[in-house]
Design brief:
The chain is an alpha/beta fold. The protein is built from 13 helices and 9 strands. Helix 5 (41-51) packs parallel to helix 10 (152-165), helix 6 (57-78) packs across helix 7 and helix 12 (232-244) crosses helix 13 (265-275).
């Protein structure tokens, strides 16, 4: 298990400590080797994230289909919900030969996941090996799900970092983040909190209103972020305000990371025009990964090999497969 997973249950208590204490402990934590913080599997996942870029299109498709079969087969055998759901739909994972065969895989509604969460978990993963998380709830009610300790988070981090490297990311960079975080329930409360464990400034999404945008920009200027990591909707709020008020050059960023929400090409061009950087667009749903590639290289990579993927727009919701 990774140190990050072991410490996660204590995160709430850590956030209540004085800021100077958090900064001191966070600074020490950031100096630990990545394999200590994220676990021994992190190096393996980092190699995979780097290696696939040299694969041919055919090899990529073969890998994707192989991993998809593994997950479907595991879900059909070890996830209670899918054992029943696949049987009712007459869907047989072993008959999968092409992605088009997924047309027979039954759909899953968000409400079903909310009501029957434990039935989606693999029976091969014990309760103590699971880490409970929720989505940010940016598109509705937050959805709870399980990650596998020592596997899910290091895999996510390895692939995210590889994706971010395309935009110039390096570990330890100062990053301003606007991705569903809430600092306080008070409408007039503070809008940001410093995460010393990652050197990130977390800005509240719930306080991102037109009248408080100047406050966000002032705090960003003081923090001097090297990158902005945000939901597209939040980045667009900032960009439209800056452009409409003639302040397009106010923030000096080295990169812009957007993901988890739909971003149209005109919107992407607006962000790049205002912030004067290339916008790296990625989707990370814990075990499904995709992003825009470099010119001449692969434009998308998806790995179906992790714990509990679900989305109201996806046809499948998977359990874990080693």
């Amino acid at each position: 298990m990774s140190l990050e997973d072991r410490l996660y249950p204590s995160l709430g208590a850590f956030n209540l400590l004085p800021q100077w204490t958090q900064s001191m402990l966070g600074g020490v934590y950031r100096r630990f080797p990545a394999t200590w913080r994220l676990g021994i599997r992190y190096a393996e996942f980092s190699r995979l994230a780097a290696d696939w870029e040299g694969w041919s299109g055919e090899r990529l498709r073969e890998y994707q289909l192989k991993q998809l079969r593994i997950v479907l087969h595991h879900a059909a055998n070890f996830c209670p919900f899918y054992q029943k759901s696949f049987a009712r739909a007459g869907f047989r994972p072993e008959s999968l030969r092409t992605p088009e065969d997924l047309a027979g895989c039954p759909l899953v509604e968000r409400s079903t996941v909310l009501e029957r969460r434990d039935e989606f978990a693999s029976s091969t993963i014990s309760a103590r090996e699971r880490l409970y998380m929720t989505t940010g709830g940016s598109t509705g009610v937050p959805v709870g799900f399980y990650l596998q300790k020592g596997i899910s988070r290091p895999k996510e981090q390895a692939f995210l970092e590889r994706m971010w490297q395309r935009a110039g990311y390096k570990p330890g960079m100062r990053i301003a983040v606007i991705r569903g975080h809430t600092t306080t329930s008070r409408q007039d409360g503070r809008i940001s909190r410093y995460d010393a464990t990652r050197n990130w400034m977390l800005f509240s999404s719930s306080h991102l209103t037109t009248d408080r945008l100047p406050e966000y920009l002032e705090q960003m200027e003081k923090f001097r972020p090297e990158m902005l990591h945000a939901y597209p909707s939040s980045a667009l709020q900032l960009a439209e305000y800056l452009e409409n008020t003639g302040q397009s050059s106010r923030l000096s960023l080295g990169g812009l990371l957007c993901g988890s929400e739909r971003l149209t090409l005109p919107q992407k061009r607006l962000l790049e025009r205002v912030f004067s950087v290339e916008c790296t667009v990625g989707m990370d749903i814990r075990n499904g990964w995709s992003w825009r590639g470099k010119a001449g290289g692969p434009s998308c990579f998806i790995s179906f090999r992790n714990t509990d993927l679900w989305s109201s727009e996806l046809r499948i919701v998977m359990g874990y497969a080693k």
